[in-house]
Amino acid sequence: MHIINPATEEIIATIQEDSMDSLAIKFTRLQHAASAWSAIPLQNRIDIIEKFVFLIKENSEELAAILTSEMGKPLQQSRNEINGAGAKASWLAQHATQYLTDEIMSLSDQLTEKIVYEPLGVICNISAWNYPYNVGVNIFVPALLAGNAVMYKPSEYASLTGLQIANYLIEAGVPEDVFQVAIGEGDVGKALLDLPFNGFYFTGSYQTGQKIYSHVATKMVPCVLELGGKDPVYVADDVVDVVAVAAGIADGAFYNNGQSCCSVERIYVQSAVYEEFVQAFVEEVNSWKVGLPTEDGVYISVLSRKAQLDVLTSQVEDAVAKGARVLVGGKRMEGKGNYFEPTVIVDVTNDMVLMREESFGPIIGIMRVEHDADAIRLMNDTNYGLTAGVYSVDQNRAEAILAKVDSGSGYWNCCDRVSAALPWSGRGHSGFGSTLSHVGLRVFTKPKAYHLRK
Ligand code: NAD
Question: Of 66, 161, 192, 441, which one has the fewest beta carbons inside 10 Å?
């Protein structure tokens, strides 16, 4: 399999894809190693994960360069991702004892009731490329902490990073047979679904998630799907610093070239502040440096997948055909590399593809609304339900709106944000099941209830 740099279009590596036979061998190794791994004291597994965090931080320059070379995010954003993923992994390690240790629920002279968090066994993690460290650690770190063996399939657009993750986990002390990497494209992911894993954990698109869920449903093992989004924010008329709000939301929409599951993908602005907001937003977008991901100060660089250029072009064409106006950008850039101009579109409606389908690129639609009730209706007018945000000086007003929006996360005066302490979950086409927080540690276990009568 050729690994292609999306900025230079050069082949930077050629690696061996897995076959059905090699996957079966890796699976058997995992199966044999799983029980010994779960039998070691939890504290040892915690120490190993802490060592892994230390190692990826210590080697973050090398790892950031690899990540940028294969998926094209600006180098500083690669560094940020590695640091952020390290912090999340640390949180999970530091809370593993609290949430994975046996719990005595009631104790009397006659009867003890306790919960034991048994590992599932061997789990399969099929992963995405946009934040390979961030979305990876959400799964393999708690899975390993809980005592599972892991088959990790990085995206074909982040395979070199996947192999580096394995190197550093093993250097940190994870036995090689406890963490195996499956290399390849969608067909390799599909082949994994036929192996008898004890759980399937997927991060990727709704389209693939749907296929995976229907394929594994009959196995009767846990399946968690972290899928795409069409995340809205609403700017209410009482915001004070419109320029700062616009800059914050622009970052939420365009960071990582808009290729985040929780990128802001739709903006609704109340009439009283609409003109000022749009002007400030456009100024912010025009201030960014576009260029090679390795250049200092670049904020917008290439898309990881060439095919997405056509998706964005057709979203612009559909919006313009239905009456929208392009204020900034609007087309792919000439020359080498998967560049698309940062694009701001106004006069949009919710029947435009731009406001319905995940864009996953540097493009955003901004719409004027009159009342909170309109904003709530429009925010809910989607099949997705990952995150939603409200900007307002009034916390009560914001929370009242967020309570009526069907999404896994709600943001007040912030957006495009993930916390290790809070469950990360989608609704509808954004998936189901949670990672992170205590929920995301226990999601890799089978809680067993003991009723112990003397
Ligand atoms: P994708 O669905 O194209 O691929 C994801 C993974 O699935 C890859 O490893 C791929 O090789 C594999 N795959 C493809 N076809 C398969 C099949 N038939 N069976 C099994 N595996 C298969 O998604 P992507 O382009 O890698 O990632 C982008 C998507 O992921 C976006 O929709 C984004 O919103 C979503 N995402 C969600 C979260 C979240 O936490 N909710 C986080 C990151 C990304």
Answer: 66
261-305, pLDDT tens digit by residue? 999 999 999 999 999 999 999 999 999 999 999 999 999 999 999
**pLDDT (tens digit per residue) in 308-327:** 999 999 999 999 999 999 99
| 113 within 8 A of 449, measured Cβ to Cβ | yes
261 given a catalytic annotation: yes
Instruction: Taking residues 137-160, report their average pLDDT.
Output: 98
- CA–centroid distance, 204 to ligand 1, in Å, is 2
- 270-273 CB contacts, 8 Å cutoff, 24+ apart: 270/234, 270/235, 270/236, 270/237, 270/368, 270/369, 270/370, 270/371, 270/375, 271/237, 271/368, 271/369, 271/370, 272/237, 273/235, 273/237, 273/239, 273/242
Catalytic residue among 70, 226, 265, 358: 226
**pTM value?**
0.97
Spans of all domains in the chain: 2-227+430-453, 231-418
Q: What's the CATH class of domain 2-227+430-453?
A: alpha beta
For ligand 1, atom 10, name the residue with the nearest CA: 186
If you take atom 23 of ligand 1, which residue's CA is the nearest one?
204
Q: Is 226 a catalytic residue?
A: yes
Question: How many Å lie between the centroid of ligand 1 and the Cα of residue 140?
Answer: 16
Pocket test for ligand 1, best of 125, 208, 230, 338 (most atoms within 8 A of CB): 208
Strand partners, 404: none
CA distance 353 to 351: 6
Token reading at 256 = 């990582």
